[in-house]
Amino acid sequence: MSIIPCTSILVTQFVFLVSLLSFEVTSSSRTEEESLIQWKNSLSSSSPLDPSWALNNTKNLCSWTGIVCSTAGTVSEINLSQASLEGTLAQFDFSSFPNLTSFNLSINNLNGSIPAAVANLSKLTFLDLSSNFFDGNIPWKIGQLKELQYLSLCNNSLNGTIPYQFTNLQKIWYLDLGWNYLESPDWSKFSTMPLLTHLNFSYNELASVFPEFITDCRNLTRLDLSRNHLTGPVPEMVFRNLGKLEFLILADNKFGGNISSSIGQLRNLQKLDLSANSFNSSIPGELGLCSNLTFLALAGNLLAGSLPLSLANLHKIEELGLSENSFSGEISPHFFTNWTELVSLQLQNNHFFGKIPSEIGLLKKLNYLLLYNNMLNGSIPSEIGNLGALIFLDLSVNQLSGPIPPTMGKLTKLTRLQLFDNNLSGTIPLEIGNMRSLVTLDLNTNNLEGELPETMSLLNNLNILSLFTNNFSGMIPMELGKNNLNLKNVSFSNNSFSGQLPPRLCNSFTLELLTIQNNNFTGPLPDCLRNCSNLVRVRLEGNHFSGDISKAFGVHPNLNFISLSGNQFSGELSPEWGKCQNLTKLQIDGNKISGKIPSDLGKLPQLQVLNLDSNELIGEIPKELMNLSRLFSLSLSNNLFTGEIPRSIVSLTNLQYLNLAGNKFNGSIPIELANCKQLDSLNLSHNSLSGEIPWELGNLVNLRYLLDLSNNSLTGTIPSNLGKLAVLESLNLSRNNLTGKIPASFSSMLSLNSIDFSYNQLTGPIPNGNPFKLANYTGNSGLCGNAEGLNPCSSTSPTNSKSSKNKKVLIGVLVSFCGLFFLAFIVAVILILHPRFKHSKKNDPYEWQNWGREGMFTFSQIVKATENFNERYCIGGFGSVYRAVLPQDQIVAVKRVCRTQATFRQQTG
C-alpha dihedral over 665, 670, 675, 679, to 10 degrees? Predict the structure, then answer.
């Protein structure tokens, strides 16, 4: 029997093991290939995975795009970042990749939930699924990946709470869950993560106090909790334990209280952002110990007090934002001496006062200088011209005075210069023409004067030019806009400019806003304006522009506001206005426009204000205007319009202001006006309207400012229903043919402060109330009452007013009746003594006559005037006294002595 050597046995076993291992590797690779192909096939067809991903390329798995293999030949890394993948992870078989250590699918278009099976990648150290569209909860099983060191799920749509199991990831140093919709968990279940250096929970929905576990993560160098809803104070232990912090970002939360003086212990801090919270202390002087700071943002808090001088120790500071607080005091020049690295200085919206230190000229690297909305005074230092790197300068809304320094012309990189709302004086320096990079030049609301320099025409990059509300005069440089391809916003309003506008002001046709009202401009508008299809807002009112309005404007689809009031434009309105579909306000009053209103104006669905007052327009109101359902102000006064007021005006249910005064409208006032329930001002005066005032106008209970029906031919009585207009302030019914009484219901119109009933045929007492004591009643001889120009009414009248004329008549009547009473007594005695007369035929008791001092009247006239002594004519006195208005407009008081024969006999017997 032969003996096999031991070495031979060992060699055989080694070969077997190698073969077995090769088989396992091959089998594993085959599984990984199939899994990858299966997942690839589940993705959108538009996912552009490299053609190398194919089963016919199985021998080259490790050369597939994004695949890295280990020395054993199995997949160890998958990196498909920015591969434009679309789909889900539902078909990804995580169990097929037991040796995967790095999985990076960031910046794709993957969606759906993150499968819990990701926990099968037990060797995973790097997981990045950021910047996709994953949603749903974060699988808590990720907390089982004990080898994980880097986890980023930021910038997705994940929701729910942060799994507390994450604190089992004891090897993790980078954790980023920012930019999701995650909510606060029970932070007490979280424990320290000793190796954590980078923690980002920003831009979520966390709503709690500061997460306590963070204060024990002592290796943290970067902490970002910004843009959440965290409240309360920042724990003291943040400043004492986290001494390695380089970036502390807590912006846009609801943290409050003091900024702890312990903040000075964070000596490694480079970026501190506490902006947009509710901190309400002063800045602790210890902050100046954080001498490595390059970025400091405390804007948008409730901080107050002056800036501690210790901040001058921040020699490395590049960006400093203290805006939107209540800081006060002067800005120390020592700051600018030491902050020479500053790129951005933002101190706006505070209460700083005093002068701008001339040392500001030392900030040679400064790009942004924003000091607006403070109380700074004095002049702008000429040293500001040394800031050659400056891009944005805003000193607006202060109390700066003096001239604009010519040295500003050296700021050739400046794109935005805003000095508005100060007390600057003098002229614009010629050197402004050197600032060729300017995009925005805003000098409005100052005391600047003189003519604009011709060099302003060299600013070819201007987008916004705002010079309104100054004392500028003279002509605008004729070359302005000639070579400018970007001019969008031009405002010259409220100055004393004269002459014509530059003919090439809108040469690029990019103009969107043109506001030049209240100047002395003359002549026609530039021809290029007609082709500015991007116009949004135009205000030219209060000038002396002339020319044919139909040629000045074209079709402007974005135009929403235009006012041409108070000029000398002529011609007719073009139907093309009807194509300006976004127009909300069209004001062309006070010109010389003739012709008819084009019916196309009825095609403006957004129109709210239409003012064509004081022109020479003719014809009737087009019925198409009644389609303007959003119209709340319609002014057509002082034209030559004719015809009736359209009854279809009922369609304008949002109408608040209607002025048709000073035209030739005829017919009656349409009762349909009463359906315009929102009306607060109605003026139909100076027309030829006739008929009665519609009773229904009293239902316009929102009428507040004016009801003017004066200077028409209205007849009939004043409807008592108008007394319901309880909030009306001005009422004018003068110069009509109104008759009857002023309704007593008007006494409840307590808001009236202007009343005019003059030149009508009104009679009777005026209403009670103070407003009616000051009203104008001229030309109404039948009115009486306690007001200037009126006689008092009779004391026995229902209103207790007196009339001297009626008093005379009353005395005459009483004297006559005393005589008649005595005569009746004698006749009665005779009848008693001569019984033969008792049954004789009586004379008609209504035929006797009486003479008063004002003339003759008969008893039958008195009976008729009192409707046979009806009780409602009874005014009291001794016995029964009645008030009678006789045909001769005489007013008498009648005492009835004998009502029946029986009473007559009783009184005479």
Answer: 30
